[in-house]
Amino acid sequence: MASSRCFCCFGCGSSKSSSIIGSSVVLLLLLLVSASPVFSSSVNSTTFRPQEEIQKLRRIRYYLKKLNKPALKTIQSPDGDLIDCVPSHLQPAFDHPKLKGQKPLDEPERPKGLDLPNPMEESLQQWRSSGESCPEGTVPIRRTTEADVLRASSMRRFGRKPIRRDSTGGGHEHAVGYVMGDQYYGAKASLNVWAPRVTTPSEFSLSQIWVISGSFGGDDLNTIEAGWQISPELYGDGYPRFFTYWTSDAYQATGCYNLLCSGFIQTNNKIAIGAAISPTSAYNGGQFDISLLVWKDPSHGHWWLQYGSGLLVGYWPSFLFSHLARHASMVQFGGEIVNTRYNRYHTSTQMGSGHFASEGFRRAAYFRNLQVVDWDNNLVPVPNLRVLADHPNCYDIRGGAGGAWGNFFYYGGPGRNVRCP
Question: Which residues lie within the region annotated Disordered (predicted)?
């Protein structure tokens, strides 16, 4: 790809040198087009316009310069990611007008009744496997690249979910357990991590907790989301990655994945949001899960996120939201996929392990120990859990309760099959 120096030279100096340099830039852009299937498909469908592509790359580089903050240290992950150790006060959250000049808050009061999970059962992250770590006072941030942005449908939608108007529209399909009808101040669960197959780059497969308020089908939906996902368009590979999301207007103009916009404030130097999780569960083999807790700090009203054995990842400031500034009215746990109906058939993108709930432990994906946080900051078992699969022949769910798992369910499926054409 042409360097910024070449772009500055384009059009400068003598007409002969301008012509040579201009030809070089066009040649490099043509090579980029031929090397990138995503870029190629978007350009070849219309007339190739070198000046427009040059301007596009300039805009992307300007955007990346603002997004990727100066790092004190950079760690190369085995999966190819670069993890930048950024001073905590320089992270993207503090670009927000209401946060400029501030620093992350101290740890809040945690919910009462919180039991720490067994560390032996946990999945961590690939970038930690080298033994490298980020210094105190910094936060690990996955570096965003030009290739990441070029894979997106547009720069405006980069880092954002496709708009989801309701639980069944827009090609989104779900298998979830949920509670509603009360005021909720948080949610907690442990979910095992898999590497389901995603069949086209514009689809994804995820498993997460949703903390929700507002109305489905309207423009006032507020959500806080955390879990693991596989999204080739967003990350460029098929690894399951720890992610977060938020929106205050039904996925339209506010919110984003991870730290790709100002909003979520990270406080931990051990977890990189958007980084690959390892190890993952195997069919009839070892099962590895992550424990996630989202709760509203009773003192300041912010929504905090905990990962694994007590690691506080950070928080969403309450001012980001309208309805969630007070409390949630619904909590969901479970899986979601996008079905683009490529070639007019239902997608073969898998949810969870890619196997139906009836196959049970070590074969199907699960959520266990489902809890919510009440008005007095107590963690309590989920009351009256309901389960719903909106396309049960493609992905299903089966709930249960009792024993060390408390409230739990198995969920998932293969997508396209004889009963899901």
Answer: 94-118
